[in-house]
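Support request from a user on the community tier.

User writes: "When I paste my structure tokens into the form, the page sometimes reloads and wipes my input. The last time it worked, I copied everything first. Here is what I submitted, just in case something in the input itself triggers the reload:"
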């Protein structure tokens, strides 16, 4: 594997909830080579976003608590740097596209002010120079008539245009690592395809690495080099995108793939949903947390959490029966 831009080891994010502990992230280890894309997939509540929030220092403490062995970004441990250093890194060398652009953008500020503030803060350039760079980035992300639109407020943009503004904001400082949290949620399929193509093109142009957080395996295909499948706060399977799609090992990964519509499927072939619901993170079952929904579960699955089996460089699965 080539040089890593990010290496996370045994990350935990816990919350104190009414006398109990919610294990939102429970020992996650992931890695990402420079210039590549890692897709982190799983159902809502599996810990995908919380993993990124924990790495980037965005978990409020209290009620949250973040700890782990290390979260190395270009050799620097994000779990142990100062808050001042994290603020310098966020928005500059590490940028995040949040899930809902309507709530992530400030409704009281113009698009111009929200974009130029990033450059003034991290690059120390004048507002005039920042406006010129912001206009150029809006053009590159496909905002029509940017000279007029830059002075408007977020509510004057469609959902797809607001998402493009968020992408422009994230890319203004040419980050080494871009975290895209469900960047196509609530967008129609045509706009989804445009946004994903835009991200791919800009990533190639800027040489950035990317973490793509999604519950949609259809988004992963063709957009990721590596995949980490999360369930109940843990990574249950890791591998290249080709390995995950061609030979999924964990029953949960197999279930996710079986529930995705396929254009090449037989006409009468039905989708197979995963039965049941994800477990309550404050009351995780003994052993493997997926066993209550798994058709292959055995007695040993209830006795202890499965050991992580390494099947080659970057290929892992945590399952007793896989």
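"...and here is what came back when it finally went through:"
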């Amino acid at each position: 594997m080539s040089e890593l831009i990010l290496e996370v080891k045994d990350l935990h994010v816990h919350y104190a909830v009414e006398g109990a502990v919610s294990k939102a992230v429970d020992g996650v280890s992931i890695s990402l080579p420079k210039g590549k894309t890692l897709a982190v997939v799983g159902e809502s509540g599996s810990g995908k976003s919380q993993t990124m929030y924990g790495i980037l220092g965005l978990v409020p403490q209290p009620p949250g608590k973040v700890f782990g062995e290390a979260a190395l970004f270009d050799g620097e441990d994000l779990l142990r740097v100062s808050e001042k250093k994290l603020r310098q890194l966020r928005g500059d060398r590490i940028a995040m596209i949040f899930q809902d652009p309507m709530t992530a953008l400030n409704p009281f500020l113009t698009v111009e002010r929200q974009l130029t503030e990033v450059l003034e803060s991290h690059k120390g350039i004048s507002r005039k120079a920042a406006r010129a760079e912001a206009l150029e980035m809006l053009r590159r992300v496909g905002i029509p008539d940017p000279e007029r639109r830059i002075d408007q407020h977020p509510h004057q943009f469609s959902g797809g245009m607001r998402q493009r503004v968020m992408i422009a904001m994230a890319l203004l400082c040419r980050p080494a690592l871009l975290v895209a949290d469900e960047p196509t949620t609530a967008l129609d399929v045509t706009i989804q395809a445009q946004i994903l193509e835009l991200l791919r093109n800009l990533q190639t142009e800027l040489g950035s690495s990317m973490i793509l957080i999604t519950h949609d395996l259809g988004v992963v295909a063709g957009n990721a080099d590596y995949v980490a499948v999360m369930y109940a706060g843990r990574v249950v399977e890791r591998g290249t995108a080709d390995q995950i799609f061609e030979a999924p090992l964990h029953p949960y990964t197999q279930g996710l793939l079986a529930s995705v519509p396929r254009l090449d499927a037989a006409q009468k072939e039905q989708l197979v949903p995963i039965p049941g619901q994800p477990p309550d993170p404050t009351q995780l079952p003994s052993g493997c947390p997926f066993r209550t929904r798994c058709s292959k579960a055995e007695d040993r699955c209830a006795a202890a959490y499965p050991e992580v089996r390494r099947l080659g460089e970057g290929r892992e699965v945590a399952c007793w029966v896989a």
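Agent notes: The reload is a front-end session timeout and is unrelated to the input. The longest strand covers residues 4-17. The mean pLDDT is 88. Escalated to web team.
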